[in-house]
């Protein structure tokens, strides 16, 4: 097992998108800057989608421009179609996250077409992309669908295989869209996917915490070999097209867990906690997570004791 993990902060996209009251663009940019200053080097800053479908994300182009000026930041934007990918690239985006669902019902709900059409559209997007644009696939409902229920592993593996064959040098993220995945299911799919598609550049995991299993499934993914993890400051989130889904696993909880285990995240927890508190307090936000309250009750925001402390005690 490698000694570090790579965290992808998704609050500015997945966390903000279900919030009704408009969040000023200046507030979003300031939040991205603060998150980057806390050590988060990958941030999903927005999405190029229909402004009528998700009004909160209509300022994605402004966020792309602002993020480009933040030293050391690798911003990414979500796109649901090749058409939106062209818009994102034209706005200056250089890391695209193409989203499609493993389940037919959710893909229809999310992008109004069959999964096969989304896969074909993804292939067209790849053919048209400039060479300097990185790509990631977000495979929504990889474990559970709000309409169809638990997803069987074999058909999801078949879809992953078809997508990976189109271009293996991408990152593929297995998404627990509803928060109903269990640790054993996550471990099974993650292990099987890596064995089925050994040439994939990297694997990622996206957890929601609807049933309080976000950290448990994140750790299960880690044990299965995944080293890239999505999380949202303040535990914000909730998919507008997945009824009942609540927020993402909280970034501060994930940082605390891994650092406590002696696995570096590169994120300063004491700098992250005030940001998480601020975004959790946004009007209309649906917040989650446990670390903020636990650390606040101690009157401090310490970095968790890690494996180094145990080693020192044994010396």
Automatic annotation (TrEMBL):
<keyword id="KW-0456">Lyase</keyword>
<dbReference type="InterPro" id="IPR043594">
    <property type="entry name" value="HMGL"/>
</dbReference>
<dbReference type="GO" id="GO:0016829">
    <property type="term" value="F:lyase activity"/>
</dbReference>
<dbReference type="InterPro" id="IPR013785">
    <property type="entry name" value="Aldolase_TIM"/>
</dbReference>
<dbReference type="Pfam" id="PF00682">
    <property type="entry name" value="HMGL-like"/>
</dbReference>
<feature type="domain" description="Pyruvate carboxyltransferase">
    <location>
        <begin position="5"/>
        <end position="273"/>
    </location>
</feature>
<comment type="similarity">
    <text>Belongs to the HMG-CoA lyase family.</text>
</comment>
<dbReference type="InterPro" id="IPR000891">
    <property type="entry name" value="PYR_CT"/>
</dbReference>
<keyword id="KW-0479">Metal-binding</keyword>
<protein>
    <submittedName>
        <fullName>Hydroxymethylglutaryl-CoA lyase</fullName>
    </submittedName>
</protein>
